[in-house]
Amino acid sequence: MSTQKNYTNTDQLITRITAWIAGIIAIGLAIWGVIFLFDFYSYEETNDAQVEEYINPVTSRVTGFIREIKYEENQEVKKGDTLLVIDNSEYKLQQEEGEAALANAQAQISVMESNVATTAKVSVASESQIASAKAKLVKQQQDYDRYEKLFKVESATQQQLENSKAALDVANSEYRSAVENYQASLSKVNDIKAQKGVYEAEIKRRQALLSRNKLDVGYTIIRAPYNGKMGRRTIQEGQLIQAGQTLAFIVDKEAGKWVIANFKETQISHMHINAAVEITADAYPGKTFKGTIVSLSPATGARFSLLPPDNSTGNFVKIVQRIPVKIRLTDNAATLDQLRAGMNANVKINKD
Question: Residue 130's closest CA among 180, 188, 170?
């Protein structure tokens, strides 16, 4: 009888404890249900979201062998920091050759100017010969006129007249030759001056080539384009690289961070620009980040895919589409430094 009574008391105790546990669970479920319903009617949520940053490639603009690598993996760099140094021996030689070619082209101008001065002096001498030839021609013309008068009155012989005529023809030819030589010397001066434009164009061409050579020399030093953090290093010193080859990746810290949340098309009716957003990252489940909506995509993600679906083919299955929503993170830089591009996140937006 005593054993049955003890068993009954124990059974009652267990029943009472079970009832309390069941009550606590029921209350917990009720609270969870209230919270769930409150969140369901007050917020739009999605776990299809990731942290984004600008990750840009660092490329080479020239071909050559890597001489030095100035960064390590995951190293923070400042704008203008040297990342790579490429062997510039060949480009230095090309620059020196360009400088020599430019100096030669500039020297041609000096030679041309000297030729102009020399030819101008020859022209002056030719002009003085014209005066001499003209004086000689006038004298011979006078002598011929005199002999012609004397011949008419039979005071001069036919031979004297013919000799005077021959001397006049020679003087006339010499005069014409002097005039033509002077005109030719003037034309030569003009021809030489006309070559100045050719030399000046050649100098500009050589200057452009030299500028390009200097650019190539400058391109052998690759610098950080902005403040950021380097990614994985996959190159080694002494490696041959080609122009346009991707050498590394740098994360742009100046551009900031944002989240791309892919909400269902049935969730975006209450969303608008500048709406407040709460974000939790899977890496920091107990921490909440703040943000605001920057923009909503003009089309669903499927429309931007390589092969967008074509429902007119007849193989139609209705699937709820996703709309990418860009969210700018508004916390301070120290807080956002915990986030990394590609991290998964949960996004909650209040229904206004």
Answer: 180
DSSP state for residue 305 in the 8-state scheme:
S
Residue 178 lies in a domain: yes
115 and 182 together in one domain: yes
What is the number of other CB atoms lying within 10 angstroms of the CB of residue 220? 21
How far is the C-alpha of 44 from the C-alpha of 79, rounded, in Å? 40
Amino acid identity for residue 181 in this structure: N
Tokens of 332: 């301070």
Supply the range of the domain harboring residue 129. 89-219
Do 229 and 292 belong to one domain? no
Number of structural domains in the chain: 3
Burial 273-285 (b: 16+ CB within 10 A, else e): eebebebbbeeee
Beta strands in 7-122 (DSSP E): 43-52, 55-59, 64-69, 76-77, 82-86
Q: Would you place residue 2 in the very low, low, confident or very high pLDDT band (cuts 50, 70, 90)? A: very low
Local structure of 226: helix, strand or coil: coil
Per DSSP, the three-state class of 167 is helix
> With contact defined as beta carbons under 8 Å apart, do 46 and 264 qualify?
yes
SS3 state of residue 326: strand
CATH of the domain at 77: 2.40.50.100
If asked whether residues 180 and 326 sit together in one domain, one would say no
Q: Which two tokens stand for residue 262?
A: 């892919």
Q: How far apart, in whole angstroms, are the C-alpha atoms of residue 152 and residue 96?
A: 82
Q: Are residues 214 and 97 in the same domain?
A: yes
Residue 232's contacts (CB-CB under 8 Å, 6 or more residues apart) are: 73, 248, 249
Show the CA angle centred on residue 348, arms to residues 344 and 349, nearest 5°.
Answer: 135
Q: 268: pLDDT confidence band, cut at 50, 70 and 90?
A: confident
Neighbouring C-alpha atoms within 13 Å toward the C-beta of 209: 17
Model pLDDT for residues 108-128, shown as the tens digit of each residue: 877 777 777 677 666 666 666
Taking only Cα atoms into account, the Rg of the chain, rounded to an integer number of angstroms, comes to 49
- Does pTM surpass 0.90? no
Alpha carbon distance 127, 120 (integer Å): 10
